[in-house]
């Protein structure tokens, strides 16, 4: 296995960090690699905010579903889907006047533009994750930045055509984290299909979750009397307060966009 594949195969989320700081040279290496991430039309429809202010990190640790390790992370990067930069440039280039002169359709950024920018931001974030991992720096995605949109918009001075897509906590793992084994993944047959989508039947689904169901039965870590992984996950994730808030926030993002 080559070194790149080893980095990808060994990566896991890190939430506890050692006292070793991330140097300015290492930060620069990670950011430089990130800026080489694939991007739609070479437009780089994303921005990155380095969260350095400790008070701001403390606030985000609360607004992002009460996760204290965010405040303790040595380095925090927020990735924005960003069409604002290009839209401002269009205005700078007098696009509306140009469209009138040429008989071209003039429009505002729409939902498809937002999704394209989201793809750019996530690709950049994952590139940062792998760059950091390659030099021994661990990371953890914070999807909860999708919650509390209005608070985060005001807190971070986000303009109209930007969306906070994901946040990364980065740092060297401590000794405890170094000893934790990787989490399992679903087998390839349930995820990778050829030519067209395959809807999993009941037998497929039972085989897909067999390992997790065995652990569930043996360790009994259910919520509210859940009898299987599906019932447990539905309560713990799908209808949890953070999930309800996330969906409310995303609707607000779409409306604002």
Average per-residue pLDDT, rounded, comes to: 94
Which radius of gyration do the C-alpha atoms yield? 21 Å
What is the number of domains? 1
Secondary-structure class: alpha+beta
Predict the CATH topology.
Answer: NADH Oxidase
So what's the overall shape?
globular
- Portion in beta strands: 5-15%
What is the fourth-level CATH superfamily? NADH Oxidase
Helical percentage: 40-55%
Output the number of helix runs.
13
- In N-to-C order, the SSE pattern is HHEHHEHHHEHEHHHHH
How far apart lie the N and C ends? 44 Å
Spatially, the strands of the biggest sheet line up as: 1-2-4-3
Low-confidence stretches: none
The CATH architecture designation is 3-Layer(aba) Sandwich
Task: Let me know the number of strands.
Answer: 4
The major sheet is characterized as: 4 strands, antiparallel
What does this structure look like?
The chain is α+β, with helices and mostly antiparallel strands and about 260 residues long. The chain starts with a helix and ends with a helix. The protein has 13 helices and four strands. Helix 2 crosses helix 7 (about 110-135). The radius of gyration is 21 Å and the shape is globular. The protein has a four-stranded antiparallel β-sheet, with helices on both faces. The protein has one domain (about 5-180): NADH Oxidase (3-Layer(aba) Sandwich), CATH 3.40.109.10. The longest helix has 24 residues, at about 110-135.
Explain the layout of strands and helices:
Elements: H1 3-10, H2 24-34, E1 46-51, H3 54-63, H4 69-72, E2 75-82, H5 84-92, H6 95-102, H7 111-134, E3 138-142, H8 149-155, E4 162-171, H9 175-178, H10 202-208, H11 210-219, H12 229-238, H13 241-256
Antiparallel strand pairs: 1-2, 2-4, 3-4
